[in-house]
Amino acid sequence: MTNQHLAHAPIIKSTDWQIRWVGVTALTWIVSVLALASWSAFYVPASEPALPTVIALLVPVVAFVAAMFLSKDLRAVAMNLDPVLLTEFQAWRILGGLFLAVYAFGHLPGLFAWPAGLGDVVIGLAAPFMAWRLRNDPGFLNSRRFLRFNLLGLADFIVAVATAKPALCSAGRWHTGPEPPSSGSGTCWRACWPVVADLSRQVRPGRPIQPSNAG
To answer: Residue 16 and residue 64: Cα distance in Å, rounded?
Structure first.
């Protein structure tokens, strides 16, 4: 979008069928991923590439890009979304700092937790300032600083995806608690089990939580 486009182009409101289509598509994708995870469809040995996870990440992106090219209405709606609102949404990425909390308990390797966690925190903290600047100066949309902000956000996402597989594969090595249930647990539960087991073991009446020894 250009400065003139941002300042003068009308915002195209989504029709009811578009809202329903987006909602149904998102809900279908979420349910499908949860079902596949519960069936351990994303589990692969540590020596093999995580192709199921890569496919699950790429399918929504490819589907959206294809829909943008095939549907003029969807393309018009997407290109006329408020860039200030889209930038403000990035503030939620500050929750990625929880990776560092999990790392502090010894359940994530630093190779994943530090770049993914700090990257999300940086983007989350910068997003409100970027949105404020964009709201007061529409020309900021075409600035190099705003471009660098978006490129940094994409780089953080790529790094997180690239290092997530080693983190999940080493989940068992980073804890000393009981093993997770094996029947129908799925990859997501196996990844979260070390944290749950450690907290349940350490939290006792009158006993403070102590970080685990990550080795």
So the answer is: 19
pLDDT tens, position by position, 75-122: 887 788 889 988 998 999 999 999 899 889 887 788 888 999 999 999
SS (H, E, C) the chain: CCHHHHHHCCCCCCCHHHHHHHHHHHHHHHHHHHHHHHCCCCCCCCCCCCHHHHHHHHHHHHHHHHHHHHCHHHHHHHHCCCHHHHHHHHHHHHHHHHHHHHHHCCCCCHHHHHHHHHHHHHHHHHHHHHHHHHHHCHHHHHCHHHHHHHHHHHHHHHHHHHHHHHHHHCHHHHCCCCCCCCCCCHHHHHHHHHHHHHHHHHCECCECCCCCCCC
Q: What is the dihedral of CA 158, 61, 42, 175, to 10 degrees?
A: 30
Q: Tell me if the pTM is above 0.90.
A: no
